[in-house]
Structure formats: C-alpha cells, structure tokens
Amino acid sequence: AGDGSGPVGAAAEDGGPPAPERVLFPPTFSVSEIKNKQRRHFMFLRWKQQQRKEKLAAKKKRRKEREALGDKAPPKAVPKTIENQRVYDETTVDPNDEEVAFDEATDEFAPYFNRQTVPKILITTSDRPRGRTVRFCEQLSTVIPNSHVYYRRGLALKRIIPQCIARDFTDLIVINEDRKIPNGLVLSHLPDGPTAHFRMSSVRLRKEIKRRGKEPTEHVPEVILNNFTTRLGHSVGRMFASLFPHDPQFIGRQVATFHNQRDYIFFRFHRYIFKSEKKVGIQELGPRFTLKLRSLQKGTFDSKFGEYEWIHKRREMDTSRRKFHL
C-alpha cells in the first residue's frame, strides 16, 4: 500500500525504500501493560505531554472565541472543586447569631479578647528533644511574641501546668517528635483550658525555605485566620488568635497566617513589602508547618480522665471527601 499502512517492507509508490511500520495499539491498550519499566515511563511522559498540549490548545481556542464574541460571550464556568461542593455543616457560624456572641463573651478566651490578659506563652518539648525539634522551637519563639522556650527532661505535663499558672503563663505549647522529626503539637490554654492536640507535618525550618527573607524582627505581627467557619473551627481559631498580643505593630510588616483548607491548617510567616502604590511583594520568613486537629479537650491537659469536646475518628468521620469539620 502506498500510504505506509501496509506490512513491514512494503515499497513506496516511487520505488524508494520501504515505508515505516505504523504501530497501531488496540483500542483498550493501556500504558501500564508495557512490561519494560523504562519504556513504560517514557511512554507515560509522552502521554502526559500530549495531554498538556491538547489542554493548552483547547484553552487558547476558548479564549479566542470569547474575544471574538466580546460582550456576548457567555460567563465563565465555575470549576468544580472539593471546597465549593462542600457538604453543608449545621454548625457553621453566623457572625450575627446572638447565641454565638453570648458564647464568645463567656468562654475561656473572653479575658483575652476583652484585653484583661496579655499573652505569655511557654514552649516546651517532649523528653530529650533532638536538634531539629530544638531549632523549630527556637524559631517558633521568634514568631510568637512574649514566648519562652523550656526544654523539659522527664517532667510530666501535669506538674508543668500548675507552675505555668503560678507564673502567669496564658498558654502552653508542647512540640512532640518521632524519629527526630516534629510530628505533634499540643496547645493548652491556661488556666481553664481547652486543650487541642494536633498532628504536625511538612515542617520546614528557615534555612530550608527557598527565597526566604531576612530574619524576623521583634515587632508584633499581624494575624490572619482563614476559613474557620464552624463552631469547632471558630474555637480553634480563637485559640490561635489568643497566642498573639492585641495590637500588631504594622511598622514591622510581618504577618502570621493560619489558613484552613479541607481541615488542614497551614501556617506561614511572611513579611510584605510595598513595591509601589499598587503592587505588594511578600517574603516568607519561616518556619512553616501543617496541622491536623486530632482532639479538643475541655480543661487543661489530662490524658486519662479528661473530657473531650471533639475527637477525630477516621472510620466514622472521613466517609465523604466533601465533609469538613473546621
């Protein structure tokens, strides 16, 4: 055949060399069926590259069509994401709800928000911390003003908490580690609780962050809390807010952000820089980490007899990807 679709060795119409063989995969063929690992990886990369090209071409085509239609172009479709398909939670907080306002005025954090107390934080670790955990605690103390680091050795938390209360500490932060890596954070509000236990992951110290800014200054940072919408999330957000003094010093241009997305709390510490009247640049100062709430306990830390307000139970609570608790 002259179109090159014949068998191997078929000559071209002009009597030239044989036409190359056309490789035709069956309709149900999958790249995963290729036995050779290197060839399979190569074919997969080619397939991904082709997919990106087709997606980019379709995007350019849609943009040209919208430019041609001008004002008559239909509105852009809203992409479906897990966030905008979230299952409605009946505990979502309404800012104008009188019950929520009453709870905020009488809860354990009311003295802080009424400016009756000044935050004073004690940061401690698990027994005999390793170097990475020690450096993380030191860097965390530069983010939270009026915080003090204490490395405990064999001293139980039940003995530390009364000493903290006697010395007017308002919060206790415990950084736990496993295999020399920080993997947990316990935040206890003093003197009456509550106590939150978080799983910690993705810890990055300052030297591990690319394009980071200079060392943070001693100015009080601004605090941003994003997407803490339910009653549980509202309580967790108030816990984080009560770690920082009331009046930020804007001259320092430093911002501590707790961003909740799909029940993962991402912490970032930035400095913003005014490039012009309309443009603002940001520099990440570090450290950064991610938290996942495991439990919220009434009162101060008590692992045996404590009363829990909320406990994360994976098999019961994580049945839907569109169901979030914070």
What would you note in describing this structure?
- The protein is of the alpha+beta class and 326 residues long.
- It folds into two domains: 31-60; 96-318, Brix domain (Rossmann fold, 3-Layer(aba) Sandwich), CATH 3.40.50.10480.
- The chain is built from seven helices and eleven strands.
- Strands 1, 2, 3, 4, 5, 6, 7, 8, 9, 10 and 11 form an eleven-stranded mixed beta sheet that branches.
- The protein is globular.
- It starts with 36 loop residues before the first helix and ends in a 9-residue tail after the last helix.
- Residues 1-12 have low confidence and may be disordered.
Keywords:
single chain, 326 residues, alpha+beta, Rossmann fold, eleven-stranded mixed β-sheet, 7 helices, disordered N terminus, Ribosome production factor 1, Brix
